[in-house]
Amino acid sequence: xxxxxxxQLFGVSFLIGTFTGLAISFYVFLSKLVAYAFYLGxxxxxxxxxxxxxxxxxxxxxxxxxxxxxxxxxxxxEYGVREIAQALEENKITFTLGDLAxxxxxxxxxxxxGFAVGNEGPSAAIGAMIAYRLHSFFRLPRExxxxxxxxxx
Length: 153
Prior knowledge:
The protein is mostly helical and about 150 residues long. It has 7 helices and no strands.
């Protein structure tokens, strides 16, 4: 790898890390906000006091809402980093900033409503999507795509 490619990769890696950190911070904040809004306060304190039908309604409505988002834009669904890297490398899929925003919203609703998924999977996918966008924006060589996605994830 040439020195210029290494310099490009270093600079873009710094930007990928910065933007990914900001996006994940927003995603975690939004997840907590959704949880507090859906469960009328701290879920650990309020869920035991809420009626069963309310908790069931929130989770069911959340499932429907997330599925409507995915129906509208299937790139908002949960992907593993490996699937994202392979699909991007083979030009089977591309991600726009709108896809990224929908991914963050759908993941925040999923986590905030109590789905047992965890923050790690969506966080890695969000980072990989940001890495792809920055790789495209800076028109980096194709062979650096997987490296950039690895940095983002």
